Amino acid sequence: MRITILGGGGFLGKKLAARLARDGSLGGKPITGLTLFDLAAPPAPSAPFPVQCLGGDVADPAAVAAAIPAGTEVVFHLAAVVSAAAEADYDLGMKVNLNGTLAVLQACRALGTKPRVIFTSSVASFGGGQDAVVPDDGRQVPTNSYGAQKAIGELLLQDATRKGFLDAVSIRLPTVMVRPGRPNKAASSFVSAILREPLLGLSTDCPVPPEFAVWICSPRSAMEWFLHAATMDTSAMGIDRGINPPGRSATVAKMLGALEAVAGHAAREKVGFVFDKEVFDIVVGWPAAFEAERARRLGFAEQESLEDLVRAFIEDDLAATKAERGL
Amino acid sequence: MRITILGGGGFLGKKLAARLARDGSLGGKPITGLTLFDLAAPPAPSAPFPVQCLGGDVADPAAVAAAIPAGTEVVFHLAAVVSAAAEADYDLGMKVNLNGTLAVLQACRALGTKPRVIFTSSVASFGGGQDAVVPDDGRQVPTNSYGAQKAIGELLLQDATRKGFLDAVSIRLPTVMVRPGRPNKAASSFVSAILREPLLGLSTDCPVPPEFAVWICSPRSAMEWFLHAATMDTSAMGIDRGINPPGRSATVAKMLGALEAVAGHAAREKVGFVFDKEVFDIVVGWPAAFEAERARRLGFAEQESLEDLVRAFIEDDLAATKAERGL
Ligand SMILES: NC(=O)c1ccc[n+]([C@@H]2O[C@H](COP(=O)([O-])OP(=O)(O)OC[C@H]3O[C@@H](n4cnc5c(N)ncnc54)[C@H](O)[C@@H]3O)[C@@H](O)[C@H]2O)c1
Ligand SMILES: NC(=O)c1ccc[n+]([C@@H]2O[C@H](COP(=O)([O-])OP(=O)(O)OC[C@H]3O[C@@H](n4cnc5c(N)ncnc54)[C@H](O)[C@@H]3O)[C@@H](O)[C@H]2O)c1
């Protein structure tokens, strides 16, 4: 089976490529080729199958078509301009998040073989804020351009599925933590920073108060969801191709509690609270909890505990992050 | 005040232009200019203000920019490829309904003066079917490309409103009846035909059974909603710029009862039932009833009775339809 990862050089794209390389197969079928596509050609993991690494713009239809060659059975569409960046530059967000998804749609349609497309939508496509518990049929009223562009992408891919052009599953990812590397332009960057920076021995400011709740998941369960979405029987989904997966609702205080339990009081003490209105104004609109019953019924896996989530970061990513940041 | 109607040559666009010409003002402010834009330059109504008539493609940004000159305070965006046509030709629907709305967004944004934009979305943007009573926060899961494109248009204009580029109100129109003229490519064409054709003395086939229910409104109340949406205080809407207006849920049998009450048994007898699976498969997905409480609270007017709706067609449109069709 041939697979393409668009955004294959990003946080989740790199992890997914490594996972596929390790597994060598997907859904019991051997992988015969993997294409990684990102603005700059991503590094190839060592794998038991050929890996092609391409640089290009996901908003460029020809570049995307080249990244989805004939015979591609599964496309992971992860390429995106993230929340704060799409809010700061409306035109860039529209170009990458809207035109990019249109280019993916057309490239898949041109194959004529209905590839499975896994699209990473976001909790940010919902409004509702701190008090909401979003039901499975909850309406998406985004409070930011990134969320609007993600909701639009879902509608495009859902309709393309109905038309028989492709076979989409859109996973509305929670905030994935702990993200390795450096703080980034996502408004939710702090959610990872408050665990990652102390584990690196660094101090960090949390821009929201301790009682602020966030809908989160771990990179490990994001990977499980991606693989499940790529291999599940989609006929059970009917026309509605959007999934609210079973993340976890956690307050900043709870996360810091898990940090302290795993890494001790000194780590916990590295986090100060400095309110940042710009960040707060974006993330305060995102709902902090979901029902996610439909996803459970469709076989999407549950989260590990917060403590295990912290431990997983230490196991999977701490050394590489230290090396990357020269620490 | 300067006003533009995109799709000004269509059923509702022509009625709206005539209404504005008659009123001479909108929301108490004298109209100083009206631009009508459609594929072919629409006919100008006789009006107490200058009327500019332009032909062009709403998917052509330059043409749309020319149709929305500096100083435009209100834009009615009615230009669209309707349901069955957008289903039959996916690319045409995407071009007109998606790229067209993007061109409208950019032209309004370029003004820098936040014009009010009234966008005609549709009941077809919802799924749910015959048994649904759609709540005000009902999720849009379209079962057709037209509905998906309308839902996307709403998201685009809602986000553009939040960004301060324009000030949008999207009205999810019920099936507007009685439509004058000839049957058209809308899957809902029969809803008007079963009243109009008998009033013209013609026989017609109804493609769905008598107990089939439809969410409808009259052209007169569509006009009231358009004018209200153009002049209302939108701050009460908050971020959610979509409106489910107070239409009426009516079965085919009820509509034919109203026809008989107004025009007699002979008129009723002109309607036969010949099931059409292609039409049925599109319209069966549309919900037949809505709560519409939010719209009532926001001042959107109720429907007249079905009998009055039939009488309004006779008063407003029967003679012109007869003339147009050489009857
Ligand atoms: N990480 C999270 O918490 C989270 C939460 C919700 C949704 N998501 C979504 O999941 C996906 C992956 O997230 P991530 O955390 O790996 O993000 P990331 O920013 O690390 O990766 C996104 C990748 O897209 C690439 N990209 C951006 N513009 C591009 C363009 N024009 N052409 C080609 N590639 C382009 C970037 O270079 C980057 O490598 C994204 O779609 C994101 O919106 C992530
Ligand atoms: N009439 C209804 O029952 C109903 C119900 C729900 C929503 N709506 C929406 O209300 C609006 C008006 O409906 P209507 O019944 O007057 O439809 P209509 O088809 O009579 O009018 C639409 C107009 O758009 C024009 N148009 C199509 N493609 C164009 C293009 N590329 N460039 C410029 N103009 C173009 C057509 O020429 C037509 O005059 C539409 O947006 C429709 O989708 C109508």
Automatic annotation (TrEMBL), chains A, B:
Pfam families the record matches: Epimerase (PF01370)
Keyword NADP among record annotations: yes
GO molecular function annotation: oxidoreductase activity
Chain ranges of the NAD-dependent epimerase/dehydratase domain: 3-200
Keywords: Carbohydrate metabolism, NADP
Stored NCBIfam families: ErythonDh
Protein name per the record: NAD-dependent epimerase/dehydratase family protein
Organism of derivation: Neoroseomonas marina
